[in-house]
Each structure stands twice: as structure tokens, then as C-alpha cells.
Amino acid sequence: MYAEERQRAILKQARQNGRVDVATLAAAFEITSETVRRDLTALERSGVVRRVHGGAIPVERLGVEPGLDARDAVMTAEKDRIALAALEQVPAEGAILLDGGTTVGRLANLIPADRELTVVTPSLPNAFALANRPGITLMLVGGRLRGHTMASVDSWALNALKDTYVDIAFIGANGLSVERGLTTPDTAEAMVKRAAIASARRTVLLADHTKVGNDHFARFGDLDDVDTLITDIGIDPRTADEITRTGVKVIAV
Q: If you average pLDDT over residues 102-111, what whole number do you get?
């Protein structure tokens, strides 16, 4: 088993059981404790577990939500590929919505200046990325700015989205699973994401494979709210099949 495959298995076990310990993992995978510790260090650097004495705990069990900079520094190659694939979904003209988050933010940076688009976004980084592109009519959703994501939340944002209708919404998520749908740690973020999905004719979810099978506190949608999931090739094939059977088109890049 390659290190990346083993680390995915370790992460899955941590999320299922709430924690993992070094001795048990070493025996299960027939590897040394030092190798397990290296795997746990790699997972911690990816922002998906927190090392504790003798093992590790998945970050969602700790109630930890990494900041924007920390999340932007992990899974960078995968996020770039996902954003590039998402660009193929962006129409030449019309109206789209760009959610907050680091993967959707990469898509914002890729949108060509000559597209005749109305772009609705609650995300301040997305707004800065698009502000000077001549073909873009930028509609910045107002509200309380949440520092963790640099995106607008609460009633002002909800009121704006209530009267908005776009062709495609590009949405991010902290977690998604067949059992619990689309989740995020914060209830205010969840409300805005739910309103964004409701405003769109089609919804495209951008999420790298570490989000799949991961559940957070606040649910903002079901998988049947999603038309297309764009993820990376690290997704477990069986999980991808399960998602496909719910009616979602899965694109792994």
C-alpha cells in the first residue's frame, strides 16, 4: 500500500472512530510506529487531523475550523485541477454565483476578463479577484463579514440572495456524505450556502477528496441539491459510485 492510500485509510478510520492511536495503526498496517507518526504528521499538515499524545483526532471532532490562509495552503494541486475543470462549466455569458472558500476562490482567479458575466459573490477575496475585469458585472453580497472565511453572512446576505437568480452556483463545502449531505462548521455560513443553492438553476460543488465522507456541525443541503461534483482523483471509487447513484454527476480530475 502506498503512503497516500494508507493515509486515506487512517483518516477514514479516525473519522469513523473519533481518534486513532499509533500502536493500533502500526499493528493493523504491519508498519513501524515511526512510519505511522510520519503519516499522522502528513495528515496534520493537510489540516485534517490534530496530533495528540499517542495518536490523532480528526479536526472536526475538536470543533476546529482552520482559517482561510491555513486551508489555502493544503491540497493546492488538487484544488487547482478542480478549479480548472470548473472553468469549463462557466458560461460565456449570463449570471453565476461564486461561494466563499479556497477552491471556489481559485476558480474566481481563472475567469477570463472577456466573459460577459454577472457574478454574484458573498466572498471578499472573490470580489477583489474580479473587480477590475471589464466584462464582469460584480454583485457583492453584503452582510456581516466572517473573518474565518472572509465571506458575508447573516440577514443582509440572505435578503440579497432571496431576490437573486443565477444560471449556475459554484459552491464549496467543508464536508459531504451520502448520509448527511453538505455540511460546514458554522450555522451562519450554512444559511448563506443554502440560499445560494436556492438561487441557482444548477449547482456545481467543488470539493477535494478530503471533504468526502467528512461531516460538520451545520447541514446546508442534500446531495440531490447538487447537479455536479468536481473533485480530485483521490476520491475513493466506491464512494464516488455511491454519490453517482444519488443522481450527482461526479467529475474527478
A: 96
- Distance in angstroms (rounded) separating the CA atoms of residues 39 and 94: 45
The grid cell for 114 is 472577456
Helix (H) or strand (E) holding 239: helix 237-245
Which amino acid makes up residue 56? Answer: A
- Entry pTM: 0.79
Q: DSSP states of 140-195 as a string? A: E--SEEETTTTEEESHHHHHHHHT--EEEEEEE-SEEETTTEEEES-HHHHHHHHH
Cα first-last separation, the chain: 22
Helices 33-45/22-29 angle, 10° precision? 110
Contact 171, 184 (CB under 8 A): no
The edge-to-edge listing of strands for the beta sheet with 175-177 is: 175-177, 181-184, 218-221
**466584462: which residue's cell?**
135
Q: How many residues does the chain have?
A: 253
Q: Please give the single-letter amino acid code of residue 41.
A: T
Q: Grid coordinates standing for 150? A: 472572509
pLDDT tens figures, 59-103: 766 655 666 665 666 678 999 999 999 999 999 999 999 999 999
